[in-house]
User: Which sequence fits this backbone?
């Protein structure tokens, strides 16, 4: 059986292929101090982690979670977890306590790797997580108790040799959570056998060459950050830059210039923010090393493509995929004429179609549900603990993406919108249920419905319709309290940008709030069939 | 009014963290959770606390807490 272990492909196999001394990771901290790690370093450091985890009694199938901002420990621990054939759950470091609790509890997390600044946020939820045995803290010098342990102390003295057991393709690997229209986020489980598809897309879409220096700005808490920010490029021996600083126009361009980045993978919202500060960058930075750019997370509007061409003199290619697909599905790429605003065409080996009422449409330009024929390597294997939700995503041989699209007569796909209530601010999917639940915790609010609405910067913003308790007054102070509550409870990404107070919210006769009615009203569209509306 | 002390109170409230001790040199990179996404809420809280109003261009690229404190001081 060929060893499908993703981490082995990222480390040992690269060393065996003659890349032991090639730089795998150039870590640039917030002060722009670079530290290089070769593929041999990756092998050693991930082995130390694997040995440390195994020494605590953890092994195949253990559910680890990494709750850290970008820092080298993330990548070493991630690869160490995979070497152990344990499951690496990835959390965005900006998640608030409820978001973390929901994910750890649902997954039955046994180990959490974090830092003191983030542990502070979630200390009071730890009693709610009895299965969580061990918390490894990257900046703790001494163990706090049997549960909260010093990670550096644990790693000290660990062997840098570790033998990875042969790993079957169907072995679970990475766990990300994604939002849906209803209920809490769903755990999307991937397997080691997903790697070949991801590698194919690095070769054919990103088209990384041996000497490229590649930067993916996505956080490892999202699927792009793991697939295209860790596993797929390293499994093919490519050099990646990771940056420890926050988003800032000058900082990003300084990084591009100083590190001689050749291929840059980022997101439309970031580019729109850069566009607003064009004066600060135009002609100020040497981007001669940069060959091309890619975009992911939201539709890449034609204005950005034109701006990138005009201001940076580069081409940019939009890519589309989902947490569930694990890798690129529909893309633009060098060598294929780009139709600005289009998602592009399916990657090799992927069949995509548009379906209306469960039937695949034959006519070009038909708007319908975007379906993918199942069976590609990197397809998710389950929604954790939600088999019915998993099954509901499939229609025979087809996976329903939840997106709406159309296909033109030349086979280019065009994104229309979501087919559900999920909101996409800045490329991060937010489920309305999480936001509504948090707002309902405010004593002044008795009813709430959250919708997504177009936004010129974020692509979509969250709009909250609320009904106040009798006597309560909506003012700036209450808005601020709502914003702070959601920031700390869920994430700053989930904070509504607009609040609309209503005496009552439209509900059907079962009492379910009809978000689509509010959305239509907000957008000035026909509200459609309202026969089920209460009164 | 001690602006830095006032800002410390605001940061503690917004991030629900009473351990925060601001210094003028502190930047968003020094505190987990202070980033471009939480920045809007933070500024809104600063405006409320000090009774000032910021223009977008004034706060787009504040390099550190000291710059924010100076901006607040100028408007008081």
Assistant:
């Amino acid at each position: 059986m060929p060893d499908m272990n993703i981490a082995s492909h990222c480390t040992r196999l690269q060393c065996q292929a003659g890349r032991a001394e090639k730089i795998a990771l150039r870590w640039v901290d917030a002060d722009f101090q670079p530290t290089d790690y070769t593929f041999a370093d990756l092998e050693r450091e991930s082995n130390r982690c694997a040995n440390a985890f195994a020494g605590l009694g953890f092994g195949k199938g253990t559910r680890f979670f990494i709750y850290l901002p970008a820092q080298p420990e993330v990548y070493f621990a991630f690869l160490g977890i995979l070497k152990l054939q344990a499951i690496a759950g990835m959390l965005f470091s900006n998640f608030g306590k409820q978001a973390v609790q929901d994910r750890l509890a649902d997954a039955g997390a046994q180990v959490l790797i974090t830092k003191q600044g983030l542990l502070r946020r979630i200390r009071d939820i730890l009693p709610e997580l009895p299965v969580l045995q061990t918390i490894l803290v990257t900046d703790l010098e001494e163990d706090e108790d049997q549960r909260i342990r010093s990670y550096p102390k644990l790693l000290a003295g660990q062997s840098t040799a570790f033998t990875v057991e042969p790993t079957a393709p169907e072995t679970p690997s990475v766990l990300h959570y994604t939002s849906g229209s209803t209920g809490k986020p769903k755990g999307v489980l991937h397997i080691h056998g997903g790697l070949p598809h991801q590698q194919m897309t690095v070769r054919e879409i990103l088209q990384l060459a041996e000497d490229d220096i590649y930067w993916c700005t996505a956080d490892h808490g999202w699927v792009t950050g793991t697939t295209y920010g860790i596993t797929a490029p390293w499994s093919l021996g490519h050099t990646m830059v990771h940056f420890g600083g926050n988003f800032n126009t000058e900082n990003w361009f300084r990084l591009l210039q100083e590190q001689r980045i050749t291929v840059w993978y980022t997101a439309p919202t970031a580019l729109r923010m850069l566009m607003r500060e064009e004066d600060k960058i135009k002609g100020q930075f040497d981007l001669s090393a940069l060959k091309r750019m890619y975009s992911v997370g939201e539709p890449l509007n034609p204005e950005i493509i034109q701006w990138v061409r005009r201001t940076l003199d580069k081409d940019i290619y939009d890519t589309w995929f989902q947490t569930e697909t694990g890798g690129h599905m529909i893309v633009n790429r060098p060598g294929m004429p780009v139709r600005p605003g289009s998602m592009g065409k399916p990657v090799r080996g992927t069949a995509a179609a548009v379906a209306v009422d469960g039937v695949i449409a034959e006519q070009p330009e038909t708007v319908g549900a975007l379906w993918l024929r199942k069976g590609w390597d990197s397809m998710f294997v389950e929604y954790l603990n939600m088999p019915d939700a998993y099954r509901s995503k499939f229609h025979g041989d087809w996976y329903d993406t939840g997106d709406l699209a159309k296909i033109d007569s030349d086979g280019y796909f065009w994104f229309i919108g979501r087919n559900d209530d999920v909101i996409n601010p800045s490329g991060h999917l937010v489920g309305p249920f999480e936001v509504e639940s948090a707002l309902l915790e405010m004593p002044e609010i008795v009813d709430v419905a959250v919708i997504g609405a177009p936004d010129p910067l974020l692509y979509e913003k969250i709009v909250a319709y609320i009904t106040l308790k009798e006597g309560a007054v909506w003012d700036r102070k209450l808005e601020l309290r709502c914003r702070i509550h959601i920031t700390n409870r869920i994430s700053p990404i989930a904070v509504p940008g607009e609040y609309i107070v209503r005496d009552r919210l439209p509900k059907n006769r079962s009492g379910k709030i009809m978000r689509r009615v509010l959305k239509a009203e907000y957008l000035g569209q026909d509200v459609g069939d309202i026969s089920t509306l209460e009164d | 009014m001690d602006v830095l002390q006032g800002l410390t109170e605001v940061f503690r409230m917004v991030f629900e963290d009473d351990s925060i001790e601001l210094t003028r040199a502190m930047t968003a990179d020094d505190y987990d959770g202070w980033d471009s996404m939480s920045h809007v809420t933070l500024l809104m809280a600063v405006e409320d606390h000090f009774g000032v109003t910021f223009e977008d261009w004034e706060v787009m690229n504040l390099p550190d807490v000291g710059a924010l404190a100076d901006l607040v001081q100028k408007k008081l």
Summary: Residues 36-50 of chain B form the longest helix (15 residues). Chain B has a mean pLDDT of 93.
